[in-house]
Design goal:
Order of helices and strands: EHEHHEEEHEHHEH
Helix content: 40-55%
Largest sheet: 5 strands, parallel
Number of domains: 1
CATH class: Alpha Beta
Structural class: alpha/beta
CATH superfamily: P-loop containing nucleotide triphosphate hydrolases
Strand content: 15-25%
Radius of gyration: 16 Å
Number of strands: 7
Shape: globular
Number of helices: 7
Length: 192
Amino acid sequence: MKRIIIVSGSPGSGKSTLMKSLEGIDCKIANIGSIMESVGLEKGYIKNRDQIRYLSNKKITELRDYAFKKVSEMEGNIILDTHASIAANGRYLPGLPLETVKKLGDIIGFVYIDAETEDILVRRINDRTRIRENEDDYLINTQRLINMSILSQYTAYLNISMHIINNKQHMFEDAKKRFTDAISDLFNEDTK
């Protein structure tokens, strides 16, 4: 039996850090960006992960479709780590196209990691492992709005719940507990 929880959040929300902290949940984690990166490197489309968002729609779709196909072949409890939207130079592309989501099937819920705009901005500026564009409040708020709009539409379409975790700066342990509780709650929904 396969059950999928999609975890999403704007870059800088702390999604990756929360994903790494997840303990005590029997599941597989599939990171769409990592799968896309490995295939993109293999095909010579990119030299690093941050170049993915600058590819053509066609190449992003090719990499994304491959990644989601790999996830659809998995079994068991799966946490799918991905972005609801991909932003580059004012262009926003869907990270979760509706057709792709429909093909996955077995989605039992969404968890959206959010944070205050100022917290996201500070995290993005301080993250030396990534190559970011010039960031400002407007761009971050726009992406947050787009992400929430996409995920709200999908929860209504699929008739499933969405947990929203506010990952406040300097309150990581609280966010970690709420994140773990949300994942546990979704995987145990059918036992209630």
